[in-house]
Amino acid sequence: MAAHPELQERELLKRARMTRTIQAALVRRDVPEFTARLAAEIATGILSASYQRWSRSTAKHAPMLVRITAEALARTAAITADARLDSIRTT
Asked: pLDDT digit string (tens) for 23-60?
């Protein structure tokens, strides 16, 4: 896909559409717009990175996509666990 810019563009459009769909679903569930956007971006980023890792695996017994995605989610949670909202400036 790296050698085909049109495929990269198509993939980016699909990812943007998925992000908007997730965000809209969260907003319908009364999640604030900004929080929904953050969650949707994170979710699509995790799925995209997980899929890329899974699809490039050449191991005979490669981990399932769901396992890679769960690991990516756990890593994301770990790196954000110490963040405190009250220490983030909203200027």
From this structure: 999 999 999 999 999 999 999 999 999 999 999 888 78
Q: Is residue 65 within 8 Å of residue 53, measured between CB atoms?
A: no
CA 57, CA 11: separation in Å to the nearest integer? 20
> What is the maximum alpha-carbon separation in the chain?
50
Token pair 């997980």 in the structure block, residue: 50
Q: Give Cβ neighbours of residue 64 (< 8 Å, ≥ 6 apart).
A: 54
Model pTM score = 0.77
pLDDT in tens, 68-88: 999 999 999 988 876 665 565
20 CB neighbour count, 10 Å cutoff: 13
